[in-house]
Amino acid sequence: MSWGFDVTTMSGREHERADVPADLVEAVVRLMPDPAIVVDGGGVVVAANSLAETLFGYRADELAGRPIEALVPDRFRADHAAHRRSYTSDPTQRPMGAGLELWARRADGTEFPVDISLAPLGVPEHPLTLAAVRDLTERRAEWDARARLSAIVSSSDDAIVSMSLNGTVTSWNPAAEHLLGYRAEEIIGRPVWRLVPARARGELEELMARVRIGIRVPPADTVRVHRDGSEVDVSLRLSLVRDPQGQPTGFAALMRDISDRKRADEELRRLLVYAQRRERWLEAIAEIRLALLSVSTLDECLGLISQRAAELADADSVTVTVPTDDPDRVVVSAGVGELAEPFLGAEFPLDLSLVGHVLTSGKPITSTDVAADGAAWTELIDKESIGPLVCVPLTTSTGLAGVLAVARSRGREAFASEDVSLLEHFAGQAGLAMDLARVRADMEQLAVLADRERIARDLHDHVIQRLFAVGMGLQAASNTIGERGPRDRISEAVEELDATIREVRSAIFSLELRASSKVEGSTRSRILDVVSQASKSLGFQPRLQFDGPLDTQVPDSLVPDLLAVVREALSNAARHAEATVVEVGVSVHDDLTVSVTDNGNGMGESSRRSGLANLRARAVAHGGTMELGPNLPRGTRLVWQVPLA
User: Fold this and answer.
1) How wide is the angle at C-alpha 541 spanned by C-alphas 539 and 544, nearest 5°?
2) Which CATH number fits domain 267-443: 3.30.565.10, 2.40.50.100, 3.30.450.40, 3.40.50.1820?
3) In 3-state terms, what secondary structure has residue 406?
4) I want to staple 354 with a disulfide (CB 3.0 to 4.6 A). Which of 222, 231, 378, 558 is the partner?
């Protein structure tokens, strides 16, 4: 029982037979730091220290004299005896069962993993073997835990990277290779900074410092550099690695690829933006509808459409282009923006314009760069200033009614597909708005025509009849007056009444024609428009009188010359006559006769007549004549007359 060791040996007689000094065996066993057993050549336990007895669960006097196979599980005993005999024949100091898993058996029958080192004692004639035994239960559990951890790390879908405190990579799992492209042998031993973009290095240094002093940091979204130089979006969690004594030895980084999540977030953000923009588009459509239900005109509606389209599409220019009476030309009827303002009211050929192409095809057109497209599509825009452009058709119940063109300045980003979709929807609603505006205008026109018809009836049934009655009464009274002077004055009054009756009849005929035809493009209405326009330059409204079936008897080929005669005659009166009264008469019988009289300065210099040469040429071209003379007692009279077939 020296030095705290309890060494149990066999009896002195048997010990002497082994020719081994007892004090030698006792000293060797006592000095062993691990559980130790001494076995003779026959496989019998000669001695064991207290550590061995405790390990195997035997009392102090129970191990000595037992066969060593009693400490070996049943399934290994036969093989163990053979291995023992082989060792006895050639004893050397070495581990037992190199490359094999060794198991031992306790007194209670339980088994546990062991590591055994063997060393020979004694002499060849009487061999002894010293076996140092270590219980591997805890170490094997540690090994198993490490193996499980290694398997988890190797099979993990997340990149798991270990690094030293100074940032040198010490481990690299397959998921890290898949995520960042580096093989383990390419990156282990290299600084982790090669995986970090320059802009994110400070962020990682701060994160490592916080983790090192014990601050728990939640996962953070960041980026890492792939082997090919591209950047990868990752979620990073960093934790501190400590040794068994609790001292920090490095960091463990878990990185997860969040590229799909980023794309999903971006798509969600885009959809939210689209939903918000769509809501604003719907509000704009509702605003346009409300405007149309009020007193807004079609021109005001088109202006509102242009303004809202520019705001909602973030555009620098918006135009609304519609067809003209000429099927080969279009006109810009509304628009907003500096790039569109110079073209308001401009006409241009249908076949040389982008909007003409849309009107012809009925399909929207998108251009990311008009100048780069190079097509001679447009006279509408300055191609050097316009960048992205979208043209969508305005469709009404009667077909294509125009084109909504939305443009951004050169160098700005192109319109997204959602922008084009919203513009198409907006244009469709704008087309409905145009329908509504036209219907309302037609209703207002019908109301005007009905009012004209009523006025015509009232004039015919009341005013003319009363004028006739007054005239007949005056004629009857003149027959009773003997003096010539009063009788002549009454005759002049009757003639004035007749002239008034003819003018009223002409007005009635014009009103009835407009009310019955509901067409503003008749010959009479076009002459009325010319006369009405001349009132601005004359400073007063000329008198106009029609006589005969003007709209049915005058051929269409003659109408342009007729309008030109009236326009030129009124223009001359405005420029030269300084008249206060101008009368225009248009009569249709066997001939078409236009007379224009004024009470102005009369016929002046020849320069005034030179402007009428064109009118005379128009009359001659139709086999007619034109006469210009005085209008007694004051003024000028122009008579333009051509025969009717």
Assistant:
1) 145
2) 3.30.450.40
3) strand
4) 378
Give the side-chain half-sphere CA count within 13 A for 134.
13
pLDDT in tens, 278-291: 777 777 767 766 66
Question: Tell me, what DSSP letter sits at residue 191?
Answer: B
What is the per-residue pLDDT across 155-177, written as a single tens digit (0 to 9) for each? 677 888 888 999 899 888 888 88
The verdict on pTM exceeding 0.70 is no
Round to whole Å and give the CA distance between 511 and 523. Answer: 13
Domain ranges of the chain: 2-140, 156-257, 267-443, 519-645
Strand partners for 392:
404
Please spell the DSSP secondary structure of 493-549, one letter per residue: HHHHHHHHHHHHHHHHHHHHHHHHH--TTSHHHHHHHHHHHHHHHHSSPPEEEEES-
Find, among 255, 93, 131, the residue nearest to 182 by Cα.
255
552: left (phi over 0), alpha (psi -120 to 50) or beta: alpha
Tens-digit pLDDT profile for residues 128-159: 888 888 888 777 767 666 666 666 666 677 88
Q: Which CATH superfamily hosts domain 2-140? A: PAS domain (3.30.450.20)
Distance CA 497, CA 500 (A): 5
Specify which residues 583 forms β-bridges with: 543, 597
Q: How far apart are CA 626 and CA 297, in angstroms?
A: 43
Rounded to 5 degrees, φ, ψ at 306 are -60, -45
* Rg of the Cα atoms in the chain: 57
